[in-house]
Write a structure and sequence with these properties.
The complex is a heterodimer of chains A (972) and B (494). With 972 residues, chain A is mainly beta. Helices cover 4% and strands 48% of the residues of chain A. Chain A is globular. The chains are: A mainly beta (972), B mainly alpha (494).
Chain lengths: 972, 494
Amino acid sequence: CLLYAAPLPPTQQNSTENGSRKITGIVKDEKGMPLPGVNVVVAGTHTGTITDVNGSFSLTLPADKTALEFSFIGYQSQKIFAAGKSRLNVQMTPEARKLDEVVVIGYGTQKAKDLTGAIESVSSKDFQKAPVANAEELISNKISGVQVLPSSGQPGAGSSILIRGGASLSASLDPLIVIDGMPLEGWDSGPGMLSQLNPNDIATFTVLKDASAAAIYGSRASNGVILITTKEGVKGAPKISFSENTEVSDLRKEISVLSATQYRNVINNLGLTTVTPVGNASTDWQKEIFQTALSTSYNLSVGGKVKALPYYASTSYTDQNGILKTGNYKRITGMLNLNPTFFTDHLKVTISVKGSYEKQRIANQNAIWVAAEYDPTQPVYTSDQTYGGYYQYTQYASNPAVTISNPVSMIDQVHSYSSTIRSIGNIHLDYKVHFLPDLHINVNAGYDASRATSSYWTPANYFADNVAGGYNNQADPASKVFNTVFESYANYAKELPSLLSKIDLTGGYSYNNFLSTYYYYPTYNQAGTQLSQYGYPSTSGYGMDQPSHSIISFYGRLNYTFDQKYLLTASIRDDGSSRFAPSHRWGIFPSAALAWKMKDENFLKNNRVISDLKLRLSYGVTGQQDGLANYMHVPVYTAASTLYQYYIGNTAYTTIWPSVYNPDVKWEQTATANAGVDYGFLEHRITGSLDVYKRETKDLLQTVIVPLGYTFSSTMTRNIGTMENDGVEFLIKAVPVQTKNFTWNISYNFAYNQNKITHLNYTTDNGLSLSSDDRLVNTVGYSRDTYYLYHQVYDKNGMPVEGQVVDANHDGVISASDRYLTNKSAVPKYLMGFNTSFQYKRWTLGIAMHSDLGNYIYYQPTNSTIAITGWNTSENMSTLYYKTHFSQSSSYENYSDLYLQNASFLKCDNINLGYDFGNIIRDSHVSLRLSASVQNVFTITKFTGQDPETNSGYQNTYPIPRTFSLGLNLNF
Amino acid sequence: CTSDLNKMPTNGITNSEQYSTVAGYKQSLVSLFSNLAYNNFLRYYWEMQEYPTDEAVGTWDDDGNTGEYHKLDWSADLTAINNLYTVVMTNITYCNNFINEASDANVAKRGFTGTDAATIKQYLAEAKFLRAYFYWIMMDEYANPPFATEQTLGQSNPTQIKRDALFDWIEAQLKSIDTDLPDPKTNEWGLPDKAAEWSLLARMYLNASVYTDTARYTDAITYCNKVINAGYSLEPCYNWLMLGDNYKNTNEFIFTINYKNSMETWGGTNFLSLGAAGVPSTVNGLSSSWGEFRTTSALVNLFPSTDTLTDKRAEFWTTGQTLDITSISSQTDGYSFYKYRNVDRSGQAIVQNNSYGNLSDIDFPVFRLAEIYLIYAEAVLRGGSGGSMSTALSYINQLRGRAYANNPQSTAGNITLSQLTLNFILDERARELYWEAQRRTDLVRYNKLTTADYLWPWKGNVAAGKAVDSKYNIFPIPTSDLLANPNLTQNTGY
């Protein structure tokens, strides 16, 4: 901060009798322009004021007070001593692009400039400007090496988050998510886990990428850790914020199949008789099941401080319609954060309670592929009311399982509902010990509780369920979750000026318990006859199940700073998990990191070009136990459902089965070495970081094929091998133009990740036995999920030859050994994110894009071949028919490289335009902002399917829609 | 405060709890036998025994591309081949687990004595019989399967056993349990007795030269005699055999897989009833018909006519079906049979205790007396001693008496001694045992499955039929297990 006005002569001092005096002044921004709305508070009190439109303020300073605090969003707060002054001119400094920002780390906070690990934090001002339905989308394409992958276009579905490509083969790739100190792992991790949160409540996302940062979370940190904080009340008058958003979504691209006319032509040209005679109708089945969907959301929040009690409360309502007809998702959320302090700031208490209620009708997604296959020459409706008036392949009425149903009937007549009520809450006490203020003792206790219901029914005249007389299954409750956490840790921070040192020690204990309860109910038909005892389909012999697991941990961390330039962090965590046999139960996860703040060295201190330079080095070990079954090491018997009883004579016996168990399963461990540099140039107009890392995961957990006869199944979860990830991450942010009226921001991030399996324990390295899918295999020397396919045979004109693949080993037989490792994987090698924003006076324009390169998708439309020879039904064909002219499917064709496509893409995620009206009512603080945006704007790709974005190797069933939205923001 | 890390599933019980009572042992034993009825075991086995032969073709490439079976042109990748392999090996593993739990040491350790200990010893013998039966299937289909026992369970990857060594092992196993198994016809319906063990031995000895290159016809006759002398007799009517109330066939059935229509599976005898193409629900006693399998004209030609006027076993369904097969995937090409019907002896459909209306009450006879008669006759014809041609002829004529006159004592269908040849036996087996999952084994034993000696429509995937490579007499070890288990080597030719 700069004080640029000299104090006025004492004679002009405007004192009063009790010693208090009036102070006036002007607050300006970094360009010297007056800054209205700045909070000016007498330090140590709750009295204060706000600067007016000219940046001027005026207040009375009590005699016993000497300082004023100035704060404004986006700027560094500052405390200025006013001793002997009656006029203060203050210049605010923009929140210096992270450097002084306090970043949440595991079990504590740290100044960004003192970080030693690869940590990136995004706060609310940098979130995606377009309205988002799910919290994780706030940071999509904002952070290098972090993929936010939309899992489905279904309303409320959410996205999965992948950090540095994930460290596991199949155990889990989901990072640990900690919200306000509450770890959410253990239940419903992965896509949708954050769906019950209101995105507007979130203040910061912090991503711990390397091992030194994450290792404090030990066994759950291999895939990285995401720390989320929610908003807190700030001092000053209550701030009320209201926003409303209206969206219209539509299908961006249909699956490319023949039209009715094309279909009739193909059939006629081939002279074929179809299983179902060609009809006269022209139906675009995809049009029939998709719709343009309208969604709205409202959000209201209030934050402020009542005496010593900062508070923040919010509520929101979302009503989303799916582009697949009948799909609807409603969500109500509420949140309250209280941050009181006691005993003159010795005890800080944080109480946070979040609640949500979701209710949805889930549209039948199977209708999507059926719509692509259903005969386009048949009508949607018929006069015959036997099946509710829907056209059906009635010749299979006695056994509809052998055919497919009219997709419109699948949408209209399948009624699937669910609802979830969930609350996450915790209380955190931070006690600064009275006789030893360097010591803080923290206690954190919290819960994550939910209750879900489901309802599924079909009418008796629904073609597919007609034989049974319809279905009806009501589950209330369907499941309950009660997860608890209790943590206690102490922190001791001490400056040792004589040694030029600062130490900061943390040590603690953590207890997590995860408890779910599932309830199973009978299924009835519409006449009320019980069809099955416990749900449909049912294999359980029990009316309920209550799986549970716990993790108990001890951890410690040392931060040591020498001469304010040399930083050391070391941490260790000892985790015990109930998921492992006693002999493998505990795992130790250490880490260490060094950082050197080069900028603070004499040789750079006065350099005007380089404004920041820090080198970082770290190494650490993290673990993984997510994705494992809870009781895998325990040999037990379970009973089968009464549907699977067996009769000896006339006596029915309930059958019992030993489960597959493996007492040898142990922790998956990932060792990561990371080297990075944080840089800033030209007074931070350009900032960023560069990281390189090497990550080795050993004892990979995967469910693999085991020799038959070894145990009760052909598959079993084992520690199967070792995998490496090597990568580079680069981030640059720049402000190319910054003038009074116009600001232009750019940020770009790039990540390269090379994944390679280096060792497999149980098999030869052909890898086939490790495949979770026939086409995707995990093999030594190759990336995980590498395609293993036949070479397609082409004729001299370059046309693929039907049913012919290359007999690579020339043994005259086509067998799996003729397939080859394509060296092409479902996992992208390069990820890029690009964001830019323009601010001109009151206008803002933002564009966000991202790109995945080097990823492949096996795109074989199920009806890629002319399916006239299909089984019990006439199926429409993919337009791929015109390229292949295949007339029947062959088993080899399902593994032909003909269908492997490069799915690299560039996606424009959103374009948003906003206008800030400022104060819309004279002499008030009511400000208005309007915005318009388009999401999923366009995709540039050679991939011929609907959407190339996926990590599974196959395109998502439910396509991500394109969305247009209009939003309104009111702040008082 | 780390004791919370010891957790047990809510719905699981430990083996010490399960095996604390004799009833617990019984429940576990019955669970092993339920594996015969579930997991599509019968369906996969039946498809493997019937589709490669003249007895059946399938409309759909079902259950892992079973269409390849009829072509006699499969590879180790074929899912269908892996299906049966996986189910049977898994069933063997369950048996191994029970055999461990029922070992003398464990029984003694758990404090069982006297009658309780003796009962568990009988259960142990019954489990060993079941395991021997599953291993016989592995030996017959895959020749050299992995050899998993109670000792290797959870300890080591099974090693591969050669076909002849496995033959010796099964033979020894069966003989070792002879004293512990109940006497013929004294065990509960669905559990094996001595006669079941003897029947399996007889069947194995008949095929011994296929498995070991050493003929054992005399042994086959010995064990047939043991069964026949145990008091079995033919049921009077052939068309009673595969009905919904065939639990009444206690005179003839030696060991069965039991079904009740409260049991939910489409891989048991309802598959055989529903699957027969063209047979309407009014005939099969079920709510529908699947149009799945038909037979070739080669089988039709073995019968005097396509109706039951002469030979009552000729239960052909011809309505809407053509005799010849133009397209294998056309459900109307080829006659089918209405042999399996979920009706009682009076023709009434069995009342369905389920919402599907198509589950079955038809028990599947794994061994029945008719087969024992046929084994006896064939073994005598092939030179085994301990039997006689005249006795063989009388057994065959009992089968024919029943076939022609619903009376085993009738002479209506009698043949003469000179007509009793090996080829006649093979044909008679087809007439008597068609669609009972016997045919592939029979054709292999007669060296007719792959050779030009016997052609049927679409054998080798040509309409007239053609010879194929002799490697198709056995199935390959499925690729997945070959890759998972480094101890295995592939069968010759694959």
